[in-house]
Amino acid sequence: MHFKVRAAAKEDCKEISRMIMELAVYENMADQVKTSHEDLKRDGFSPNPFYECLIAEVPDEHKTKDGYTVVGYALYFYTYSTWKGRSVYMEDLYVMPDFRGKGIGTGLMAKVAQVGVEKQCVRLQLSVLEWNKPSLDFYIAKGAEDLTAKEGQWCLAPSLMLDPVTLHLLLWTSREIQRT
Amino acid sequence: MHFKVRAAAKEDCKEISRMIMELAVYENMADQVKTSHEDLKRDGFSPNPFYECLIAEVPDEHKTKDGHCLAGRSTCGHVSVSGQRQPGYTVVGYALYFYTYSTWKGRSVYMEDLYVMPDFRGKGIGTGLMAKVAQVGVEKQCVRLQLSVLEWNKPSLDFYIAKGAEDLTAKEGWHFLRFHGQTLDTLAKEAPKD
Known about the structure:
The structure is a homodimer.
Chain A: E1 4-7, H1 13-26, H2 37-44, E2 52-57, E3 70-81, E4 85-95, H3 104-118, E5 123-129, H4 133-141, E6 145-146, H5 147-151, E7 160-162, H6 164-179
Parallel strand pairs in A: 4-5
Antiparallel strand pairs in A: 1-2, 2-3, 3-4
Helix pairs in contact in A: 1-2
């Protein structure tokens, strides 16, 4: 099937939001989504963006029954390894169920890899839930190494997480240190 | 003990490099370090930096034979907002972090390295550094601070759990995957043409 992968524009944020929700439903976590398309717009399309995003589109004649032509996305950002240098982290990779098995997921991920390589990144990293065998198999087949299995390395994000309450406790600690 | 936490400046890159190597030695991975202080300078101090870094310093008068400061008096540390190197202070720890994004929760901060030289541990410096990372994150409206720990590194795991961190590998079953070297290049070649 003919498809195109391109950088997301500000105007794509509603579509990205729609697909984020679809992915959350797939991962049984729909109630966890707190970001809106306005958050996405503010955080991805400002001078120091928090992420970059690629969109996969199919021609009108293949659009979904609901009329969508945007059928997948890959959202990623740059990270840093103090040992190896620049890296890229793929936070989300999603293709709508009816468009799977056609190379779109591979196309999106490969484009993230290409963008990373052009920026001299030496690693592309991501996390997968251990029950998500189809995704794990997909990435391993593409050459990914499972570092949790191999090095007992606990995951990048999220491995250890401090929630807002704990974050504020730490902030209080920082202020206490400042006062004396 | 008296210490200061401040933003790293370009000139600190040699010191950060020194401590990165010390941390790698602690993790039994010294041969794995490929970054130089010039890489750190280029990647952290350009218009779109790949990371930010905080430095912990103690007063010069407590210097060790290697030129780093010894534990001394027991006054609390203070946080300086300027990125300037303080005259009369020596670097004994760092926290290196960058911003990440959760499509469900939004802005996040990830702490890649937290390190305090062995002679300066147990004095609140690690906590001070991490708390400052948290503060910087909260000021930028981040809703999470995240990090990774090797499962054998029980002292570090205990330190973070004691501070309130949640272990999501244990709780939710995440696996961390990586493409690098040949596998990264092979994957990049599959990108559709524009």
